[in-house]
Write a structure and sequence with these properties.
Shape: globular
Helix content: 40-55%
CATH superfamily of the largest domain: Winged helix-like DNA-binding domain superfamily/Winged helix DNA-binding domain
Strand order of the largest sheet: 8-9-10-11-13-12
Order of helices and strands: HEHEHHEHEHEHHHHHEEHHHEEEHEEEH
Structural class: alpha/beta
Number of domains: 2
Radius of gyration: 22 Å
CATH architecture of the largest domain: Orthogonal Bundle
Largest sheet: 6 strands, mixed
CATH topology of the largest domain: Arc Repressor Mutant, subunit A
Number of strands: 13
Distance between the termini: 28 Å
């Protein structure tokens, strides 16, 4: 596979000029190693999933590191968490030399503990997510953004099946004590069927015969390993009785389609989940744009007890807010703009905020410019909206 440039490259190089170490996290198979080896072709590379390498490191850690020349890439460091203290000691001997060590890992919880305990102030922490639609032209609702699923679309169903199995056996068991993997697989399938809905842990626990604390633990594992996206409710007091539960999405639409048994565009077009899948796809793309450009991850949903609902609120610079409503068709109407207009009116009267409003829709064969579908509301094909993030 040829290398496709990643938007995060700028942040990685910026961090390397300012910190002695850079830690790159994110889900498995998102392209972390590929990115670092592309940016640092002459770096010394060591894979800490190789049993021989791990054995050598643990038998003689100082001798192993003496044989490593910097800049060095240490890949999948969560397998040897003691590496943080060892690298810290080396950093402290040459604290002003930037860009010495580049560490990758797929389990963010373990990595963050290591950073907190050993690398605070010495390492920049960045996150690489699967390809965004801005980065790769093949990213779409059916395939998602994982590099290998995009490179071989015909093998995507088999790749996703293997990915789920590998993820269950390696990452989940490494992060928590999930003993019954069969039930956990059912939990993943159940999550897919609740894609885009308000999170209800009791509703998830009952059909599986497990406790709510167990569901809480499993959700934490999935969020930690960037397999799900939890979108919190908008928190400002707008004089309304708000629904305070978050909405839940699988982070990659390709994986969501796989878990729902959707393998073709025809099946996707007929699926009752199409609207929720599109909504989750847009949420994920917004988050990718924020992360890739070094901005804080900020996206919210809105729903009140009177039935007013807007898919997403995205805070911007200088206090502005973007309201986003997602529509799966190619045609939008003024009636579809009513929810964002009502919420924008409440925000302006209560807080005096500047508000942008968008109705996102599927692109049509005849490309048209952004149009005003209602007062202050612009209709826009989703690729055009993502290009402006």
């Amino acid at each position: 596979m040829r290398y496709v440039p990643r938007e995060l490259e700028t942040q990685v190089l910026k961090a390397a000029r300012s910190f002695p170490a850079v830690i790159l996290t994110g889900p498995r198979r998102a392209g972390k190693t590929w990115l670092l080896q592309h940016l640092l072709p002459a770096a010394d590379y060591h894979l800490l999933e190789d049993p021989t390498v791990v054995a050598r490191l643990r038998a003689d850690p100082q001798g192993f590191l003496d044989g490593v020349r910097v800049p060095a890439i240490l890949d999948e460091v969560q397998n040897v968490p003691e590496i943080f203290a060892l690298v810290r000691a080396r950093l402290d001997t040459r604290p002003r030399r930037m860009g010495q060590w580049f560490l990758t890992g797929s389990q963010e919880a373990g990595l963050m503990r290591g950073v907190t305990e050993s690398m605070a102030g010495r390492a920049a922490v960045l996150q690489l997510l699967p390809f965004s639609a801005r980065e790769h032209r093949k990213v779409d609702l059916l395939r998602g953004g994982y590099p290998e699923a995009l490179a071989r679309p015909g093998m995507a169903p088999l790749w996703f099946a293997s990915y789920v199995q590998t993820y269950l056996e390696r990452d989940v068991r490494a992060v928590t004590s999930v003993r019954d993997l069969t039930t956990f697989r059912r939990f993943l399938a159940l999550l897919a069927s609740r894609h885009g809905q308000v999170l209800n842990k009791t509703d998830l626990a009952a059909p599986l015969g497990v406790s709510v604390p167990t569901i809480t633990q499993w959700l934490a594992v999935l969020e930690t390993t960037v397999q799900i996206l939890v979108v919190p409710p908008f928190y400002e007091n707008l004089g309304k009785r708000l629904i305070k539960s978050p909405k839940l999405y699988l982070a990659d639409s390709g994986l969501a389609c796989h878990l729902l048994g959707i393998e073709t565009e025809a099946e996707l077009a007929k699926s009752p989940f199409r609207g929720a899948l599109f909504e989750g796809f847009i949420a994920s793309e917004i988050v990718k744009a924020q992360v890739n450009h070094g901005r804080r991850r900020e996206i919210y949903c809105f729903r009140d007890q009177q039935g007013l609902e807007v898919d997403f609120l995205v805070p911007g610079r200088s206090g502005t807010v973007t309201l986003v409503e997602c529509k799966t068709g190619q045609t939008v109407t003024p009636e579809m703009a009513v929810p964002v207009q009502r919420l924008a009116g409440a925000m302006k009267s209560k807080r005096g905020r500047a508000v942008e409003m968008f109705l996102l829709h599927q692109p049509s064969r005849v490309r048209t410019a952004t149009e005003a579908v209602a007062a202050g509301v612009r209709a826009m094909a989703w690729p055009d909206f993502l290009a402006k993030l």
